[in-house]
Design brief:
CATH class of the largest domain: Alpha Beta
Strand content: 5-15%
Mean pLDDT: 88
CATH architecture of the largest domain: 3-Layer(aba) Sandwich
CATH topology of the largest domain: Rossmann fold
Number of domains: 4
Number of strands: 16
Largest sheet: 5 strands, parallel
Radius of gyration: 31 Å
Oligomer: single chain
CATH superfamily of the largest domain: P-loop containing nucleotide triphosphate hydrolases
Distance between the termini: 62 Å
């Protein structure tokens, strides 16, 4: 037997409140009554209401004020306003503020029952969609790494296996693909999770300073070394050292790193003493280290020491099916961190999914955050993003995977060609191999607007 859905009735007219309570109780709802706004708020904090019915005009606290406060307690409560004929404008304003609907007095019980059922249906659908989105994110995420594509599922499997041993790992991927997230997932899912995770970007520090940063230095080791300093290897002892962009490390420092991997001992700059270290190395690069070895820019012996287990993260353009998941993840993240809730239209998702993301996941996240911060709309549309469909290009492989009908494919291709030539129909017709008249007919048939292409 399922629990009865709870309804809160708020009306300073005691007789009206009781009539509603009796009627809705007979219809199978659990009904609570409050005759003042303050009493209603107390009940809203104590009970999990699916819906509230409130009179618009009440002493001390109006229905509009109550609406705002109830929504602050639980945004998922649907609210139906009861109003006299003369205050319909106020009721319409209440709908704009988040009320589901309004009923004018006098009303029939069947009328309000129909409105209640529709409101509850909407609420239940929203909750189901939210639960589905959360379930999808749980299923296709791993330590904040999102992906349902076969390539990312393979990465997840590699993380699970690699995290249970101490082998050195090299993570390959373009800038913005999330290499450090993968490194953290390996560390925090493994045996060293309670020990330090120490990251360093090998390109962010000059070669001369990188050695002392990694191995530490003794007092007086060089000009400015007024005291001894612990290196990152020591700080990461018993934990993990993440060497980002290791492909840019100089050959001289590569030799010293190799000795540490072989002997598990470091010697701070300017010191004669050695220090034993137990550190797992996870390296990352956007370069092909095998090619760098052939070009003698990376030591072959270090390559084999590090490249015990390689993990390849695909660029975002090769896993477009993950983009809608990532969009929802970033919108939820912004809502949790900054308290700004936005939704996104299907058309905007389509535009973002076909866009050429050269900066990968990082660029996508920045684009979404920028749109959320600058847009005044509750639902983000394509024009809220500082990208155009022409920059998205016509991605043949993506549309092939979508198994679109021929008409949809033709429409998209014609649209892309028109944008490419700046709306010049003669040039577009030449590229498409059709007459200008045929192009005109197809534009009209597919409702292709030419305003934004010129």
């Amino acid at each position: 037997m399922t629990d009865k859905q709870k309804i809160l009735v708020v009306d300073d007219d005691l007789e009206m409140a009781e009539v509603l309570k009796d009627f809705l109780t007979e219809e199978g709802f659990a009904v609570f009554v409050a005759n003042r706004g303050s009493d209603a708020l107390k009940l809203a904090e104590e009970e999990n209401f699916a819906l509230a019915i409130t009179d618009m005009k009440m002493p001390q606290m109006s229905g509009m004020q109550l609406l705002k406060k109830i929504k602050n307690i639980d945004p998922n409560i649907e609210v139906i306003m009861i109003t006299a004929f003369g205050s319909i404008e106020t009721a319409i304003e209440a709908v704009k503020q988040g009320a589901y609907h309004y009923i004018t007095k006098p009303f029939k019980m069947n009328e309000i029952l129909l409105t209640i059922r529709k409101a509850l249906e909407k609420r239940n659908l929203q909750i189901e969609n939210l639960e589905l989105r959360n379930e999808i994110e749980r299923k296709y995420s791993f330590f904040n790494i999102i992906g349902k594509s076969p390539a990312m599922q393979k990465v997840f499997e590699m993380i699970k296996v690699v995290s249970q041993n101490n082998s050195n790992v090299v993570i390959y991927g373009a800038s913005g693909t999330g290499k450090e997230l993968v490194a953290k997932a390996i560390h925090y899912n493994g045996k060293r999770k309670n020990r330090p995770f120490v990251p360093i970007n090998c390109t962010a520090i000059p070669e001369g300073l990188l050695e002392s940063e990694l191995f530490g230095h003794a007092k007086g080791a060089f000009t400015g070394a007024v005291g001894s300093k612990q290196g990152l290897f020591e700080k990461a002892n018993k934990g993990t050292l993440f060497l980002d962009e290791i492909g840019d490390m100089g050959l001289g420092l590569q030799a010293k790193l190799l000795r540490v991997l072989q002997d598990k001992v470091i010697r701070p700059v300017g010191s004669l003493q050695t220090i034993n270290v137990d550190v797992r190395i996870i390296a990352a690069t956007n370069k092909n280290l095998e090619e760098e070895v052939e070009k003698q820019r990376f030591r072959e012996d270090l390559y084999y020491r590090l490249n015990v287990i390689p993990i390849h993260i695909p660029p975002l353009n090769e896993r477009r099916e993950d983009i809608p998941l990532l969009i929802n993840h970033f919108l939820k993240k912004i809502e949790e961190e900054q308290g700004i809730k936005k939704e996104i239209s299907d058309e905007a998702v389509r535009v973002l999914t076909t866009h050429d993301w050269k900066g990968n996941v990082r660029e996508l996240e920045n684009a979404i955050e920028r749109a959320v911060m600058l847009s005044r709309k509750n639902i983000l549309e394509p024009d809220d993003f500082q990208i155009s469909e022409s920059s998205s290009g016509f991605n043949f492989s993506y549309f092939l995977k979508q198994k679109l009908p021929l008409e949809d494919f033709e429409k998209k291709y014609i649209d892309a060609v028109l944008k490419e030539v700046g709306g010049n129909k003669q040039k577009a017709a030449e590229i498409l191999g059709i007459s200008s008249r045929t192009l005109y007919r197809k534009e009209k048939r597919y409702n292709i607007s030419n305003k934004d292409k010129e």
